[in-house]
Structure formats: C-alpha cells, structure tokens
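Slide 14.
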Amino acid sequence: MLNIFGDVIMNEKIITLKNLKVVIDEIKNKLGGSAESGDLIQSNPNLLDNPDFQINQRGKTTYYKQGVGMYSMDRWWVNNNALVSPNKNGIAISINPNSTDMCMQYLDSKLVEQIKNKTVTLSASFAGTVYSFSEVFSEENLIDNLKLKKTFDKYYGIGLGRDTKGYFAYFSFYNSGTTGARNVLVNWIKLELGDRATLFIPPNPNVELLKCQGYCQVFHGDLVREYDFFNGDIIFRVPMPTVMRGTIHAEVIGNGGQFSVLDINRKVQSGFTFNYNSYGFTPPTMKVTAKKAGHGLTSASLCV
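Slide 15: predicted structure.
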C-alpha cells in the first residue's frame, strides 16, 4: 500500500507484468512523470525552495493583503488579492471573481546563472492534475513574454518571468466567475533542467527549512543574555541556524515592533532603542545593540 498526500492510490493490488503499467500510471497521476520514459526511477533535482509549501515559519493560517501582496509560506510571495492558506497537501488559494492572481518565488542569482540559456522544465500539480512545459531560459524568451509561460484548461498557469526585483517562477489561477470566490489546491511545483518533467519527490522538510532560513528566520520568546556592555550600550549576539543571504533586515512582529530588554528580575525595561541589522558569519549570529543613556543595568536579557 502506497500513501501519497494521505491518499491511498493502490489498495493491496497484486502487481503482475500484466497490470504493472496500470499501477505505474496510478503513481504517475499522483506524482507526475511518465511510465514510458522511465521517470519513476529518475528524478531531476528540484531547483525551487519549499516546492510543496510545507514550510510556514510565519505560522499564520491565512495570508492576505489587499492590493499589495505579501510573503506567505516560506519563499512564496502572494500577489495582489489572492488569499492563501497552508494545507497538508499543498497550498489552498482563493481568488476573487473575474481576476487572476499568482504566487511567485524569486530565484537566487546563482540559480539564474545555472539555468541561463539552458532548456528547463516547469511543472505543477493543481488538485492532482499535473501540467508542464519545457523551454530555453533566455533573455530573448523572457522578452517574448509568451515562450516562458503557459496556461492550461483556461484557468491554470505556470511560468518564469522577470521584474524590477529579479527573476521568478510562478503559478497562477484565473477565476472567470462574476460572483463569489473560487478555490484551488496547488500540491507542488517543480523547476528542473532538461526537456521533460521527471518525478516530483516531496523534499526533506528539515533540509527545506534550513534553505528557507537563508531568507527568513523567526524567533520567539527569550533570546539571549547580554554579550557585552560597551559605552553604555548593551550588546547581544543572537544565534542563527544559518547565514542569511544578502543584507539582513530584522522585523519584530508584535510587541510594539521592538525587542525588549529584561533586567535580572525579568522586569521589562522601557526607553531602549535597538539596532539589529548586522550579523556575523562564524558562527551565524545577529548583533543587537540596545541603547539607553544611564540604564544602570549590569545584567540583561533580550526577548521578543
């Protein structure tokens, strides 16, 4: 018995040479792939992070920011007016009437160089149905605006694009109705080198979490004791699970948008300002400097 996404796709079938292809086709329909081409024994690396949307560090049950968009499940930006929710089988999307919205992942610059001028295949599973296309990832094809994006069954779209922030992969959904939101479940998405779609294999969540933490890290509660006192400032060094990519930007959500300093009796000390946008590499740490003239503390803790 094989369970994928919690669904039983074979019920104690006796596999013989006669029905082997039928069994393989059942697996293919769930995971994507081709029995004829031997994809069930080959799977190219997926070049996207969090491709099955199971990493959700921000911890919300819904993501929606009207007309602006926001980050939702790790590495996935929700565009415009879509409302998305994490789901054990992927990502659930609700689209307003007569509109198209998409979720996108910006590609790392090293990945862009890796796939530039090479044939790539993008595939995605919408509620169990797999769609894919292959094309050369080139500036010419990006400018063409049609070569690197495809629409399937009028409603489902996948593609590669570029805007002022960089290159990205996306999936989209069109609601043609005039009233009422329409919902769709996207199980996974895969970007790979080559001219055909190979088997999608759910990634190791621990590996995906570490990859995602290169872009976003979430902390809760007590963080660290003081590292040093310097010219009246309190220096804290917060351990990080991995080095961040690019320039670090810390954002405190809740708690008035600030860290808090506690004294030795765990009493919150008011009046501090914080600088926290620098870090070290070995080991990965975020430096937080708490400033307050004449604070009088000889011991302190940092919390959020």
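Speaker note: The chain is about 10% helix and 40% strand.
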